[in-house]
Design goal:
Length: about 170
């Protein structure tokens, strides 16, 4: 049984189909050259088209420029994830053998780290800085206010924003 889509959905799907068939090969090759890895390039190309599909765009005047822009954002996130994974694996390599977590626990920790990283990335720069100064450096709100050059009430507002994002992450 086929579902009838609204006209704008048909238009969107036709645009994506034409975009995919006309430019997937180009995007894949571009990413493969940049990454030097066919599997990662294929994954990132698919992620790019998935993001475009979710965008509901119905007209694209410069397809390659548009795809490059979307792929660049995905690639930046991918590089950040890889850097975070390398840092975690480097930290694990320094642990005594008996303290190295199981592969399952490593996976859970990495996923949690990615979620925290994404949450921190979603915060405004000063909010993120205040949160990290409090939670990582252990500074008191008064010291954070002085360091950031803002009022104490502003630091409290920043911390509330950061904690609200943490709560959203937990949910």
């Amino acid at each position: 049984m086929s579902e009838t889509l609204p006209a704008d959905s048909h238009t969107h799907l036709r645009v994506i189909e034409a975009l995919y068939s006309g430019h997937h090969g180009w995007l894949y090759e571009t990413l493969k050259k940049k990454l030097g890895n066919a599997m990662d390039a294929a994954d990132l190309a698919q992620d790019t088209f998935t993001r475009v599909l979710a965008s509901k765009v119905t007209q694209i005047e410069q397809p390659r420029a548009y795809l490059s822009c979307v792929a660049k954002g995905i690639l930046i996130n991918w590089y950040q994830r890889k850097a975070l994974e390398r840092a975690y694996l480097d930290a694990l390599a320094r642990l005594p053998v008996q303290e190295v977590p199981s592969p399952e626990l490593r996976f859970v920790v990495l996923e949690t780290l990615h979620q925290i990283d994404a949450m921190l990335d979603s915060l405004a720069p000063l909010v993120r800085r205040a949160f990290l100064l409090s939670q990582i450096s252990g500074l008191k709100y008064e010291d954070i206010a002085e360091q950031l050059g803002v009022s104490l009430i502003t630091v409290k507002r920043y911390m509330k924003q950061a904690f609200m994002q943490c709560l959203l992450l937990v949910e």
